[in-house]
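Note to self: the last two entries modelled the partners one at a time, which told us nothing about the interface. This time every component goes in together.
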Amino acid sequence: MSAEVEEMLKRYQGIKNIVGIIVVDNDGIAIKSTLDNQMSVHYAGHMQTVTEKARQVILDLDAANEFTSMRMRTSYFEIMLMPHDNFFIVVIQNPCD
Amino acid sequence: MSAEVEEMLKRYQGIKNIVGIIVVDNDGIAIKSTLDNQMSVHYAGHMQTVTEKARQVILDLDAANEFTSMRMRTSYFEIMLMPHDNFFIVVIQNPCD
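The predicted structure of the combined assembly is written out below.
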């Protein structure tokens, strides 16, 4: 998984206005992060909850469908969630130029 | 609320490739929909769960922040969630041209 994760990190680091990138395993543990430990743990757990809920809901609506990504906009920033098989990536982005 | 809801519906009906639009109150009840009753009830309940979870998570991460919208991409379509004070709007869109 490690090479795959590194490649993903590189890819997302190229996105403009990135505040942080966290790679989270399916147990909600941050396995790689550009944020400090406290923030990473905080985001990882919370985003795991949202990702699981979204996966569940999409499957419940249509068992042949699959949740592929999510973008949440908040007053301060945007959060992108990209699930993969054994982990998911959280990208926190400042939407202002 | 009704005039506000009508205005929102008109606004979102202009978006390309719309499959359906549902206005859902904060109890998860579809109060307006362009889909049939069964689909509306199904989506309303599930999307209310996701919206509530997102609201909660964003507030937990920063009590001064606010969840303003969400876009979920799946293998088949995209779902947009736009929360308002007493209701939220679900727009299901086919991403293909």
